[in-house]
Design brief:
By secondary structure, the protein is of the alpha+beta class. The chain has helices at residues 11-28, 35-49, 95-109, 124-132, and strands at 2-5, 54-61, 64-72, 78-86, 114-117, 155-158, 161-164. Strands 1-2-3-4-5 form a 5-stranded mixed sheet, with helices on both faces. Strands 6-7 form a two-stranded antiparallel sheet. A hairpin with a 5-residue loop joins β3 (64-72) and β4 (78-86). The longest helix has 18 residues, at 11-28. The radius of gyration is 17 Å and the shape is globular.
Length: 165
């Protein structure tokens, strides 16, 4: 797998993958969406990532894009993975692991102390992957109070507290 830095030649393909990523998360969360609107928002998202704070890398196999990873350099010590995505028909082939490991190598070379990633609690498959690759330090939890009816219908215990997700 090649690990290449994004350029505008790949804009349409990246926008489609960003759109697919958003749709999969909305479906995980059981939220409504309009596919056309999500795709338009993906183009705007690409423009937001085109600055010094972010780097977008693409995974490429046999001249075909199979996924992307977006790194967020919001801190001088810790780099965040903003998004990691592998096309559905390319999953379970090790490409997500390869992209994560290449990102880890990249940020280590740049002198960062760690790499963080946020994950939707219902995305068990992603959590298993991250744990397998050494993401085992829980550093921050996002807590939220819903003002409307919540789609969070499952519960889990963490550190003796019960949370909906």
């Amino acid at each position: 797998m090649e690990f290449i830095e994004y350029n505008d030649y790949y804009q349409d393909l990246l926008a489609t993958m960003l759109s697919d990523f958003s749709i999969q998360h909305l479906e995980l969360l059981k939220r409504p969406y309009q596919k056309e609107q999500i795709l338009l928002e993906a183009y705007d998202e690409i423009q937001q990532y085109k600055n010094e704070r972010y780097k977008i890398y693409l995974g490429k196999v046999n001249d075909t894009l199979i996924g992307y990873i977006i790194l967020d350099y919001r801190s001088k010590q810790i780099c965040w993975i903003e998004n990691l995505y592998v096309l559905e028909n390319q999953r379970h082939k090790g490409y997500g692991s390869q992209m994560l490991l290449k990102a880890k190598d990249q940020v280590q070379k740049e002198g960062f102390e760690g790499l963080s990633i946020d994950v939707v609690p219902r995305n068990i498959e992603a959590i298993r992957l991250y744990l397998k690759l050494g993401f085992d330090s829980l550093s921050m939890m996002t807590l939220r109070q819903d003002f409307k009816q919540s789609y969070r219908d499952q519960k889990t215990d963490i550190l003796g507290f019960t949370f909906r997700y």
